[in-house]
Amino acid sequence: MKNEKVYAMRVASVYPHYVTKAEKKGKTKEDVDEIITWLTGYDEEALQRILESDTDFKTFFEEAPNKNPNRKLIKGVICGMRVEEIEEPLMQEIRYLDKLVDELARGKKKENIFRTEK
């Protein structure tokens, strides 16, 4: 039940918090957008439409045009959970995004945020 509330949250209601978190650490809205497009495959235009609509997180991730396969390389703790151990696929996608925004705000270099196979 708790997760259902998260899934139903509008992306547009959370997005400003991502941007604020990044900007407090000297990053930009464009940096946040770049992370979102890397993770999901949405382009800038599609992301803008989502932010102007009532799109919830469930729909946002289910309809993502090209989820980056390297997102599975995202590891670590966010909100007290290890992202690689989250069993619910949709919650894992949401936490991937949270983790990337957190890394951006902590000053991690983008080439490290955008995981690549080694």
The residue-averaged pLDDT reads 92
**H/E element order:** HHHHHEEHH
Within the largest sheet, what's the order of strands? 1-2
Q: What's the architecture in CATH terms?
A: Orthogonal Bundle
Question: Mind explaining what this structure looks like?
Answer:
It is a single chain. This protein has a single domain, classed as Helicase, Ruva Protein, domain 3 (Orthogonal Bundle). α3 (29-40) packs antiparallel against α6. With 118 residues, the chain is mainly α. Helix content is 57%, strand content 3%. A two-stranded antiparallel sheet has the order 1-2.
Secondary-structure map with pairings?
Layout: H1 2-8, H2 11-23, H3 29-40, H4 44-51, H5 57-62, E1 77-78, E2 81-82, H6 89-105, H7 110-113
Antiparallel strand pairs: 1-2
Helix pairs in contact: 2-6, 3-6
